[in-house]
Amino acid sequence: MTVPGLAEAEGGRGLLLVDAVTDKWGVEPREGAGKTAWFECSGASRTKAPEPPSQPSFRQ
């Protein structure tokens, strides 16, 4: 999947992100106008988020 247009464009990457983080996705037309995007994520590919630090750290 490629992004058409300029690399500096501020939009147009939504489905690239969906493709990168999901196992399966698609788009279905809706009656009238519009469409519905759907996705599936399997639990097997998920990693546990790191625990937050017990004390907040501050930049100096």
In total, how many beta strands?
2
Helix percent reads: 10-25%
N-to-C order of helices and strands: HEE
Give the radius of gyration.
18 Å
Summarize model confidence as the mean pLDDT.
80
Strand order of the largest sheet: 1-2
How would you describe the shape?
A: extended
Count, helices: 1
Low-confidence runs of at least 5 consecutive residues: none
Q: Beta-sheet strand percentage?
A: 15-25%
* Main β-sheet description: 2 strands, antiparallel
Can you tell me about this structure?
By secondary structure, this protein is α+β, with helices and mostly antiparallel strands. Helix content is 13%, strand content 20%. It contains one helix and two strands. Strands 1-2 form a two-stranded antiparallel sheet.
Features:
60 residues, alpha+beta, two-stranded antiparallel ribbon, 1 helix, extended
How would you briefly describe this protein structure?
This protein is α+β, with helices and mostly antiparallel strands and 60 residues long. Helices cover 13% and strands 20% of the residues.
Layout: helices, strands, pairs:
Layout: H1 14-21, E1 24-29, E2 35-40
Antiparallel strand pairs: 1-2
